[in-house]
Amino acid sequence: MTYKVATVADLPEGWNDSHYKQLFGAGVPWTAIPTHMRKAVFHWIEFGEPVGHFMLAFLRNDLKEAVLRADDDNLEHLVAYVKFFYNYAPSECWGSDEQIKEWAQRGGLKGISEKLKSKKVMQ
Questions:
Q1: pLDDT over 90 percentage in the chain
Q2: Residue 8 φ then ψ, to 5°
């Protein structure tokens, strides 16, 4: 399945100034993610903000729970989520309970970036 190039309307708010865009470039195929989920996915990766039950199950790599909690749109896009996260998300932000907890504690890409900046200033 191929996805159209994202237009400005397809992008999550805050995308243009994000650490995520700096890391992965402008070619992230946001159209692979259902419209109603783009903000949650972006905020998880960028800020480590909490997500709903379906997304949490997906991030934990719990297929059974993700399928049971998915609405019809998310269920239809489940393979696209896997491809999106595999190719366009830091591997540290998904895959297991431990990784999810650590990612949230770090504050996503923004939190990690700010910690690195403060360490450089102290040196």
A1: 64
A2: -55, -40
